[in-house]
Each structure stands twice: as structure tokens, then as C-alpha cells.
């Protein structure tokens, strides 16, 4: 039964999708590409127009597929098959968003910085999102804007 998720029935392997992403990045001018995986996440990094960009792709865990959406227990083979499908779907979604962002930048609809800011790698190795999102969350919870010193993590007010 389809729930309408993008590429939920794709047969394209994660390896083929990684190659597709690398080819896409090269077409749009990326001059570097890296991939890594560990546990339930994968990392795709690239350099584009002098900017280092890193996507972290959360991947589903095998034990998340022990039961069907209706609660029935899956066999080990069914569990592995459902997990593999979800991994393929996640990789295709990453390909889609990467392609959409690159095309929007190329068409002049937006800028590289606007589209990739959360994923840009800062000098300390964190992405801007890893750096900024905790401060945004604190501001939303408190209703107060953070001071520049606190936002930058200097500890000085």
C-alpha cells in the first residue's frame, strides 16, 4: 500500500544513487566529493564554489521494521526487505533535494548560501546548522533573542 512518499518503491540501489549524486554535483561544478557511513547515518560532503557542504543522511535502523505499520510481526526476511526499501527511499530523497537546490541556484531563483547555509561547514568542522540551531531553539523557547556573544559561544556578554 502506497503512502505517497517520494521513491517509496524505488529499485535504485544506494550505491547507484550515491554515484548519481556525485555526477549531479560534478555537473553543477562541485570540485570535491566524499562519502562515509556509520551505523544509522551516512554523510555526503562536497565542495562547491569554495564552500564545503556536508549532508548527514539519517538512515532507518533494521529493528524499526520488526513490525508492519498495522502491527503484524515481520519475518527476518520481510524485515530486511522493508529496511532495504526504506534505505533506498532515503537515498533517492537526498538525490532529489540536492538536485532541486542546485537547479534553483543555477536558475537564479535563490543563492548557494540560502539553499545550503545549514549544511555549510564552518572552520571548526561543524555545519552552520549544528552551530546555529541550538541558539534558535533556545530563543524560541525563551522568547528572547540571544546576545551576539552567546550566539557565537564566546561566553562574554
Which characteristics define this entry?
157 residues; alpha+beta; 3-stranded antiparallel sheet; 2 domains
Blueprint of the fold:
Layout: H1 14-27, E1 32-38, E2 41-48, E3 51-58, H2 76-106, H3 112-116, H4 128-142, H5 148-152
Antiparallel strand pairs: 1-2, 2-3
Helix pairs in contact: 1-2
Protein described:
- The protein is of the alpha+beta class and 157 residues long.
- The chain folds into 2 domains: 14-121, no CATH class; 124-157, no CATH class.
- Helices cover 45% and strands 15% of the residues.
- It is built from 5 helices and 3 strands; from the N terminus they run H-E-E-E-H-H-H-H.
- The protein has helices spanning 14-27, 76-106, 112-116, 128-142, 148-152, and strands at 32-38, 41-48, 51-58.
- The chain has a 3-stranded antiparallel beta sheet with strand order 1-2-3, with helices on one face.
- Strand 1 and strand 2 form a beta hairpin.
- Helix 1 (14-27) runs parallel beside helix 2.
- The longest helix has 31 residues, at 76-106.
- The model has no long low-confidence stretch (mean pLDDT 91).
Amino acid at each position: 500500500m502506497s503512502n505517497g512518499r517520494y521513491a517509496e518503491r524505488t529499485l535504485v540501489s544506494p550505491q547507484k544513487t550515491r554515484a548519481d549524486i556525485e555526477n549531479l554535483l560534478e555537473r553543477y561544478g562541485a570540485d570535491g566529493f566524499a562519502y562515509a557511513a556509520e551505523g544509522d547515518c551516512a554523510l555526503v560532503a562536497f565542495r562547491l564554489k569554495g564552500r564545503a557542504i556536508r549532508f548527514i543522511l539519517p538512515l532507518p535502523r533494521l529493528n524499526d521494521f520488526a513490525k508492519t505499520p498495522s502491527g503484524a510481526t515481520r519475518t527476518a526476511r520481510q524485515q530486511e526487505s522493508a529496511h532495504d526499501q526504506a534505505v533506498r527511499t532515503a537515498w533517492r530523497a537526498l538525490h532529489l533535494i540536492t538536485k532541486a537546490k542546485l537547479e534553483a541556484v543555477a536558475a537564479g531563483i535563490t543563492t548557494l548560501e540560502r539553499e545550503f547555509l545549514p549544511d555549510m561547514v564552518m572552520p571548526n568542522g561543524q555545519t552552520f546548522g549544528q552551530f546555529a540551531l541550538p541558539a534558535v531553539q533556545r530563543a524560541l523557547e525563551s522568547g528572547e533573542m540571544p546576545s551576539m556573544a552567546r550566539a557565537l559561544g564566546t561566553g562574554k556578554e
